[in-house]
Amino acid sequence: MNFTGVFPILATPFKPDESFDDVAMRRMLEFMASLNVDGVTVLGVLGEANRMTDRDRERIIRCTVETLAGRTPVIVGISHPGTSATIELAAMASELGADAVMLTPSAEPVPNDARVAEYFGRVCSASRLPVVLQDHPASSSVHMQAPLIARIVEENPGIACVKAEAVPSPTKITTLRGLFKRPVPMLTGLGGLYGQFDLEAGSSGYNTGFAFPEVLQAQVAAQQAGDVARARRIWAHFLPLMVFEQQPGVAVRKELLCRRGLLSSATVRHPGAGLLPAAADGLSAVIDWVMPGVDITRPIDVSAIIE
Amino acid sequence: MNFTGVFPILATPFKPDESFDDVAMRRMLEFMASLNVDGVTVLGVLGEANRMTDRDRERIIRCTVETLAGRTPVIVGISHPGTSATIELAAMASELGADAVMLTPSAEPVPNDARVAEYFGRVCSASRLPVVLQDHPASSSVHMQAPLIARIVEENPGIACVKAEAVPSPTKITTLRGLFKRPVPMLTGLGGLYGQFDLEAGSSGYNTGFAFPEVLQAQVAAQQAGDVARARRIWAHFLPLMVFEQQPGVAVRKELLCRRGLLSSATVRHPGAGLLPAAADGLSAVIDWVMPGVDITRPIDVSAIIE
Amino acid sequence: MNFTGVFPILATPFKPDESFDDVAMRRMLEFMASLNVDGVTVLGVLGEANRMTDRDRERIIRCTVETLAGRTPVIVGISHPGTSATIELAAMASELGADAVMLTPSAEPVPNDARVAEYFGRVCSASRLPVVLQDHPASSSVHMQAPLIARIVEENPGIACVKAEAVPSPTKITTLRGLFKRPVPMLTGLGGLYGQFDLEAGSSGYNTGFAFPEVLQAQVAAQQAGDVARARRIWAHFLPLMVFEQQPGVAVRKELLCRRGLLSSATVRHPGAGLLPAAADGLSAVIDWVMPGVDITRPIDVSAIIE
Amino acid sequence: MNFTGVFPILATPFKPDESFDDVAMRRMLEFMASLNVDGVTVLGVLGEANRMTDRDRERIIRCTVETLAGRTPVIVGISHPGTSATIELAAMASELGADAVMLTPSAEPVPNDARVAEYFGRVCSASRLPVVLQDHPASSSVHMQAPLIARIVEENPGIACVKAEAVPSPTKITTLRGLFKRPVPMLTGLGGLYGQFDLEAGSSGYNTGFAFPEVLQAQVAAQQAGDVARARRIWAHFLPLMVFEQQPGVAVRKELLCRRGLLSSATVRHPGAGLLPAAADGLSAVIDWVMPGVDITRPIDVSAIIE
Question: Which H or E element spans position C245?
């Protein structure tokens, strides 16, 4: 896995009673496999990982690995406030057949860069899986300044990728590139909000949950082929939808995945915010605006839409 | 003033030594007046109000009021951690000829809704100027839940407008509209990031610092004329630039205002982040992408650009 | 259980490799049982609950319930960012034989009092165990204002106790007492820092982890017997040690429990801060100062020490 | 000034209408001068500096300097979110005759150690007054890790003192002492909550607002004379009152200063929390407990009280 391309962060499907919906999960996974995405991530922040029991986690990883059966690499979010628990989650991911893990530190009462570095060091030492270092202060409340990230990356060859989600992300990517002593792919998150800017700053693709990965694929392909104008055109065309979808909470995204026929319910685990009727209406409006008349239950034809 | 239309939040021009640049201020104000904006706001969050001395504040308000000389209403940001100081700032604004004030509460060690309500109550009682209630938890760390805002608005007829900047803003606007017992205009901030969605949810326009107010004017005019499709087209066309500009910090916006010929320096007051070379390059790229060949030192012709 | 008296919050013993030390756990539990404390709480904040896997949690609850075998009631901390996961942890606690559960809400990106109330409502509906509502914004970042707590208590008869840890705690206790429509015992936490003030404001005892529960017992007994002067004398005598012990982090407390012969290692799970040599020295000094010559490996004779 | 001894942080007296009460201020200053304190600090956090206008600040500094007339050194809090404004406040303090300034950085949206260092560097370069670096993350939300503080101290000879208020303060003092390349006095704040521990860790005295500076003087004198047992006895005797007084907010302290006859009103500037009746009662109780029958309107006789 070279962490280049498009790696959707998957929402976790729940039934209306909030139990894991493995049927929807498999449906979503098959869809992703059919798109030939470069990998998928489960149990990320917007996968509602923080609302899971460990048994939930196991079930989700197992379902994912079994369904994909090697067709698509699987990255598993394992961030946990305890280092030893993170290591256990890494071990579970490994045993269940995952291909990589993603982690970010938790906020401690007294911030301490040395212990943040140790957190990554211990997990990297204990796990044979490649590690995605996630830099997302908005959810973690941990601000890893660029020199700290560079040091962690240097100390841990196991870090195979940085998920760059600290705003402003394009300049942080540029700064990190200047500090890294080995090439480390950096992926874009944040719902794709800064996706084209990140690509132009040197990101190698997406690791985010935007509900239309085929859009991101077309954009990244154009960018990689040197057709920046086309990459921009694709991204700009869908940007209103991305902006709408990346509003706080995962309810809008789940509703969108329902409309795509992938989820059976937009249920968010409490106390996460559910979908407000006004947001459902707004979503209908923006879909109709960006892709009027398009059947979104199938992979969409990006070229046809943007022409 | 009915708080409908486009009310730019002005950046505060500084010379390279960080002193107030009144020449640039006047130039920018003349530009805004020439656009016939519906009002301007000085000393907002991205006007770097928190880095001012009171004398700075006075100078800026005086320069603004004198330059505009009644052509364009002036809203003055007066948020201050102390209620009596806020009242003094309101009095200063009033004496200097401002037309309205904008305020948001400050975070206290022990949050207390009653005292937040008192904050607005005292300022409204003491000031004869209309008040814009700013709801921007990202900068204030005060989360005013919708029922609290509704109560404050009900208790204080002096509140003439809500600046709706709590994400997700479109649904908050909808929720507030349902709770208000009198019509209160709500304006969009956040750099316009959710502008079209807010308009469709019922916002009455913009109170934000996007460096191309003429774009916002064209969009709002289309929306008001019932041409939602055109409003969307305008907004979507410029959305990549808005997204780029609303990244944290005001340096990018100031650089953009320099390129428009309005500021003479993009200087941000320390310890605010200055412009990184990578951000300057990125800005050049996105301008050239969104408006290739356009002379941005003059009011731009939005219709021509989006056709 | 009437939630009156002294309910130690137990530290979780770890071996130097951070694995659960059940031998030390049993030793500590026997000690608590021998003191006739009114109950014990496991998996609280300073029980490092947030660094546990669910299997760790199960092991700790099982060990506790089995060791105490009904001699001493067991309260289990079950706070979890997900409501359904909290309910599962409540069910696990119940199945394993716990007598009560303790919970506090988690911070959401957009604070929402209604959902905080729902959080308690759902857990209370789902669990037959009495619930301790913990009000500890310092760890949860959730500030439940007094009217919200009163409403939650009113809506949920299952709430049997409030752990009052929002500073200033004495006045919050007074305020809550004035709002509650039924008598609800309130217990003191925060390492006992405000213990005597809380008792005088109406708290019914302690639910905290101070390493000398026999001190708290003597103090509460005196207070209950109406001998406030003696209660104060006891508390004041040990206050320097309490102040020292309640410094951020649990390392000092664990070291103290080692010196009492209850733990075999002061190991804190990473990334929690371990014991600094300077803190160990400081601890020696304060013990020697407060209880010179006392054998702290046995229950101490509080009367003898304070005379 | 060698920043050794006791430097009270002064509350700012307000009349019931929240205007500055210069009569009370002078009375309090005379009292401090009569105690021969080693200096006083005005406009600290609990001096409600953040609720002042700049004119308020000027008035308070002027009143302080004029009243003390060189008898007692004056330290002025000048923390401001803007570096240039901080420099202006330093200049004002200097012009008005202050002897030193105290500052702490403000939180920025994207934390940046380099700019925190620049903040101190610029103020030190611009001001001829000695600088007290305040390390108080509880109010500033800026966590300066020990190596950063050491670097700032090394780069700026103008830094003459560190106010050590980052918990756990005793170990932070020890850590900093190990890192400093020149001797820098460190003073204790936090209402004296960790005062004796800080002294034993190497602090050179107090810079806090406890309403009985004569207690702190007696304690520091004993400590400096090598009579640690007496220092401890003094501190421990008054610790219940210190604990009570350092609860969040300044209302209790102001009430205490009223009872000492120094202030005429316990008025706190809104939206700061005023005194609750329950807190007034609690205060009466603790005073009566710690110093029964003592006339607190005069300097108290610490030796007589603790025997």
Answer: helix C228-245
| Rounded CA separation A233/A196 (Å) | 10
Spatial distance between the Cα atoms of D184 and D163, rounded to a whole number of angstroms: 10
Looking at chain D, which subunits does it touch, using at least 3 CB pairs closer than 8 Å as the criterion? A, B, C
- Domain B5-306 classified CATH 3.20.20.70? yes
C-beta atoms of D83 and B118 within 8 A: no
Per residue in D38-73, pLDDT tens?
A: 999 999 999 999 999 999 999 999 999 999 999 999
State whether B111 and C145 contact (CB < 8 Å).
yes
Partner D, chain C 278-297, Cβ-Cβ below 8 Å: 278-279, 282, 285-286, 289
Instruction: Give the residue on B whose Cα is nearest the Cα of A169.
Output: B247
ipTM: 0.97
**Average pLDDT of the segment spanning A265-274:** 98
CATH class of the A5-225 domain in this structure: alpha beta
Judged by CB atoms closer than 8 Å, whether chains meet at D167 and A113 is answered as no
Q: Do B239 and A240 touch (CB under 8 A)?
A: yes
Phi, psi for C60 (deg, rounded to 5):
-70, -45
3-state secondary structure chain B: CCCCEECCECCCCECCCCCECHHHHHHHHHHHHHHCCCCEEECCHHHCHHHCCHHHHHHHHHHHHHHHCCCCCEEEECCCCCHHHHHHHHHHHHHCCCCEEEECCCCCCCCCHHHHHHHHHHHHHHCCCCEEEEECHHHHCCCCCHHHHHHHHHHCCCEEEEEECCCCHHHHHHHHHHHCCCCCCEEECHHHCCHHHHHHHCCCEECCCCCCHHHHHHHHHHHHCCCHHHHHHHHHHHHHHHHHHCCCCCHHHHHHHHHCCCCCCCCCCCCCCCCCHHHHHHHHHHHHHHCCCCCCCCCCCHHHHHC
Q: Rounded CA gap, A168 and D145, in Å?
A: 24
Task: List, in order, residues 6 or more apart from A237 with CB less than 8 Å away.
Answer: A290, A305, A306
Measure the CA–CA gap between A243 and A33, rounded to whole angstroms.
26
Give the closest-approach CA distance of D145 to chain A in angstroms.
7
**Radius of gyration of chain B, Cα coordinates, nearest whole angstrom:** 18
> Looking at the complex, does the CB of residue D112 fall below 8 Å from at least one CB of chain B?
yes
Q: For residues A150-176, give the mean pLDDT.
A: 98
How distant, in Å, are the alpha carbons of A36, A43, B63 from that of A214? 9, 21, 52
Class of domain C5-227: alpha beta
Report yes or no: C203 and C288 within 8 Å, Cβ to Cβ: no
Predicted confidence (pLDDT) at residue D1 exceeds the cutoff of 90? no
pLDDT band, residue C193 (cuts 50/70/90):
very high
Rg (CA), chain D: 18
**CA angle centred on B302, ends B297 and B306, rounded to 5°:** 125
Nearest by CB to D278, from C170, C243, C289: name it. Answer: C170
How many Cβ atoms are within 10 Å of D59's Cβ, its own excluded? 18
- In the complex, which subunits touch A with 3 or more CB pairs below 8 angstroms? B, C, D
Structural domain boundaries in chain C: 5-227
How many CB atoms neighbour CB A199 within 10 A?
25
Measured CA to CA, the distance from residue A39 to residue A299 in angstroms comes to 17
| Closest residue, chain B, to C109 (C-alpha) | B167
Q: Is D253 exposed, middle or buried (0-12, 13-18, 19+ CB in 10 A)?
A: buried
Confidence of residue D267 (pLDDT cuts 50, 70, 90): very high
Question: Cα separation of C16 and B300, whole Å?
Answer: 68
**Is A197 at the interface with chain B, CB within 8 A?**
yes
- Min Cα distance B113 → chain C (Å) is 8
Interface contact C16, partner B, CB < 8 A: no
Distance from CA of C264 to the nearest CA of A (A): 19
Q: At D232, list the tokens.
A: 């401890």
